[in-house]
Amino acid sequence: MGRTVTSRVPPGTPYVTGEPVSGVALDGFHSRTRVRGVNPIVYWLARAVLQPFFHLYFRLSRIGREHVPTDGPVIYCANHRSFLDPFVIGTIARRPMYYVAKSELFRYRIVAWFLSALGAFPVNRGEGDQDFVETAKAILARGESVLMFAEGTRTRPGALGRPKRGVGRLALETGVPVVPVAIIGTERVRKGILVRPHKVRVRIGSPLRFPRVAHASPQLAAAVTDRIWPNVMLQWEWLGGLPPLRRAAVIGDGPWATAVSAMLGRAGLEVDHGPGLELSRHDLVCFATPADRLPAAVAEHGARIPSRAGVLVLARGMVPPLGTLPAAYVAERTPAWATGVLSGPPDPAAGGPYVVAAADPAFRRQVADALSAARFDVTATADVTGVELAGCATGAAALAAAVAGPQLAGSAAGKVFAEVERYARIAGAEPGTFAGLAGAGDLVATVLGRSTGADTQLQIPLLAEQVRTAGVDAPVLAGLAAVVTGRAGSEPWVASLTTQRPAAPRPAHARVA
User: Could you read off the pLDDT of 295-352 as tens digits, one per residue?
Assistant: First the structure.
């Protein structure tokens, strides 16, 4: 246990150094909140400064204030995007609002005192913290209000996170009405230590009531939370917040189309797959076609994709005739708000690993969260170019291994992979992508477990031409392209794998006398 705080500790000194916050210290804050409540002078002075500031600087808009109870106990259940949320949401009511804060914020004496004076009380996240529950019950018992962030932590960017069951437990064991609240815009006001002006809006829904029980089981608390949270999501989406993925359309046929349909269905989405798709009602559109068929699929469906939908591209390789990467090709020709790619095994029974790449962090998280909820092994990255070129590299390396034969398969695959990686760095890919699951990990799986078909062979000349145009020295890839197109035989290319190339001449200034 940590040291007990005394009055001799200088202001600003941590209660405990290098250890969890002292249980004795946290007990003191819980006791103060249960017995004394907020410091009225500090609270109303702070509010007198902050509320006009929010209205002027953030152009604060509070919608649905008629649903805020003027007296009696109430639980406010809200989403959490920024450290400013409890202070902004606190302005919707004309009385103090208590809120839960992570225990780490109470490590420093001045900060802890100020937060406690404003109505904050600590909770140990990820644990069954009975003190937090008892403090919340004591506040509600004397007729006051408690603000709870059901996600348990700040969630940004993208759609709302998954709620914890604590709010459902508190609602059941107190019988107090729950008011759903959504806040949007606070996630954009902070840049480093600066607070920038940005429109902030809050919307309040109608109170929800549940029967009171003496002890709420985890299952019952989770069920009630699942009734509360959709009402928060309703306010969030009314404010223009990104909704969760609910309905997806899969364009294409073959193993990848079947696989992604099964994956999204397992994630709880309503999936439409097949001819005659009506895309206006879909949140996600997936192009699961080979790269050479992507232009025809985009020409047929691209203009009908709604602007509120995101697009996920599963085409591996480059789009002929110019060798454009699939994500860039689709993004230029569809009105979708975001475009990303998915890389991984075309067998959902394997569970992954999968890599979701998208430049937009909200879309990236939206897709990754949906697949993770279905217990797929998912990694998210912003390096779209790196993931797509890693897919090109693995396909080319697998073909090189097949042409070289078992004795030289490793050498051929490794050399081709390294040449494409050098090109990818010039194209803007992050170095770690080729070393991670989208690169080396996928290479091993490809060489060991997947066959190479005509689609891969068609891609090699396109890839070789792009690498050559970029000025990258790639003799093994160029030779493989010559074999694939019939301009050279495979035997000379295989023999060249074991031939040591002459070293490039050293620059004159680097020669040793």
Answer: 999 999 999 999 999 999 998 889 998 899 999 999 999 999 999 999 887 777 766 7
Q: Which fold has domain 23-238?
A: Glycerol-3-phosphate (1)-acyltransferase (3.40.1130)
Q: Which tens digit of pLDDT belongs to each residue from 386-438? A: 999 998 988 888 888 889 888 888 888 889 989 999 999 999 998 888 876 55
Matching residue, tokens 């150094």: 17
The SS3 of residue 317 is coil
Global pTM exceeds 0.85: no
Domain 247-382 is found in CATH 3.40.50.720: yes
The C-alpha atoms of residue 332 and residue 512 are separated, in whole angstroms, by 52
- Alpha-carbon gap, residue 60 to 132, rounded angstroms: 30
Query: What are the residue ranges spanned by the domains of the chain?
Result: 23-238, 247-382, 393-496
Q: Which residue has the tokens 């929800």?
A: 208
The answer to whether 409 and 389 are in contact (CB under 8 A) is: no
- State which H helix or E strand residue 102 sits in: strand 97-102
Q: Which two tokens stand for residue 77?
A: 């259940």
